[in-house]
């Protein structure tokens, strides 16, 4: 896939939460992009210099509330979007960007493979992107890399794949407090399942990863199942962002399974818990030859997510118009 231009690609960051700020920092370090603007709906951030928000060096731009104002008259800009995990929550933002003719790279987990749960919204985005002549992509570490794209790349060295298992274990103590609370650390079992019932607990995007993994390995899965259960603290954990008492929830164990005519073909298992043992990523592909890949300690989620967005920006400017998945990006830079 050729680069669209020889110079750095101008980018605008939308959403200046923790991940959005990481994206802004990563953009400043990349020779392939130029950070020209920042957008956030928080009135406490609007009008402040971006460097002040980041707490360090930054481009001489101020945070604005309008994407149109952030882009100005600059041509060829890409939106790096980080405002939400649920497609319904961010749909209008994505459509607004496409109306302005901006390619979009988003952290929205459900955008990584929206055809599974939201075919009508996926079709709407496809039409809008085609009309604008630009690409829109959902990516990150998971979904977007460890449990799907990396598996698909490894599968290029295999014959027909019989089964794939991907496990990811994250010690939440190494991540921000918001993530520790997001996986239920400190809750009782009843509190945990009450949030599960409200669809407010767990990692968003695991089923999307399973669908991408299956597609990338040439499997035709016709059904997907997902399960989430709590991981309990076996002793008091005092070195996280806040104390977690023995017997309380320390995090989640979540699985997504892809089935083909009732037979399991793909299994993804994700543990995110305060004090989780043996953090790391493992990919096991049953084929000829069989492949086993391990990343000791695992891919660092927050910083790597920011890098995946920044590195994708030049690629989407050169991509065909439409709603893409990470499987359509080049494997290298």
From TrEMBL:
Q: Where is the 2,4-diaminopentanoate dehydrogenase C-terminal domain?
A: 145-331
Signal peptide from the UniProt entry:
none
Coiled-coil zones: none
Matching InterPro entries: DAP_DH_C, NAD(P)-bd_dom_sf
What Gene3D superfamilies does this protein's entry cite?
NAD(P)-binding Rossmann-like Domain
This chain's protein is named: Dihydrodipicolinate reductase
- Give the species: Archangium lansingense
């Amino acid at each position: 896939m050729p680069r669209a231009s020889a110079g750095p690609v101008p980018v605008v960051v939308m959403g200046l939460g923790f991940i959005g700020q990481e994206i802004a920092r990563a953009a400043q370090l990349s020779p392939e992009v130029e950070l020209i603007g920042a957008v956030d709906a928080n009135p406490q951030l609007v009008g402040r210099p971006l460097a002040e928000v980041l707490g360090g060096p930054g481009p001489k731009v101020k945070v604005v509330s309008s994407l149109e104002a952030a882009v100005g008259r600059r041509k060829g800009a890409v939106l790096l979007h980080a405002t939400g995990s649920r497609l319904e929550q961010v749909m209008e933002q994505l459509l607004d960007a496409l109306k302005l003719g901006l390619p979009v790279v988003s952290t929205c987990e459900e955008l990584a493979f929206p055809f599974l749960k939201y075919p009508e919204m996926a079709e709407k985005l496809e039409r809008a992107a085609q009309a604008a002549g630009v690409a829109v992509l959902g990516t990150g570490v998971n979904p977007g890399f460890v449990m799907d794209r990396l598996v698909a790349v490894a599968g290029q060295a295999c014959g027909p794949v019989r089964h794939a298992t991907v496990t990811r274990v994250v010690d939440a103590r190494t991540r921000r407090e918001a993530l520790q609370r997001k996986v239920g650390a400190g809750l009782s079992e009843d509190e945990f399942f009450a949030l599960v019932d409200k669809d407010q607990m767990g990692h968003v995007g695991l089923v999307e990863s399973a669908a991408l993994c299956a597609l990338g390995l040439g499997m035709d899965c016709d059904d997907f199942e997902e399960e989430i259960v709590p991981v309990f603290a076996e002793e008091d954990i005092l070195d996280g962002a806040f104390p977690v008492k023995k017997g309380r929830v320390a995090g989640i164990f979540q699985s997504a399974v892809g089935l083909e005519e009732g037979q399991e073909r793909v299994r993804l298992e994700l543990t995110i818990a305060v004090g989780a043992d043996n953090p790391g990523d493992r990919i096991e592909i049953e084929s000829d030859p069989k492949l086993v890949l391990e990343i000791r300690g695992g891919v660092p989620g927050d910083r790597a997510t920011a890098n995946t967005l920044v590195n994708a920006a030049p690629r989407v400017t050169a991509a065909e118009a439409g709603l893409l998945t990470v499987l359509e990006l080049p494997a290298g830079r």
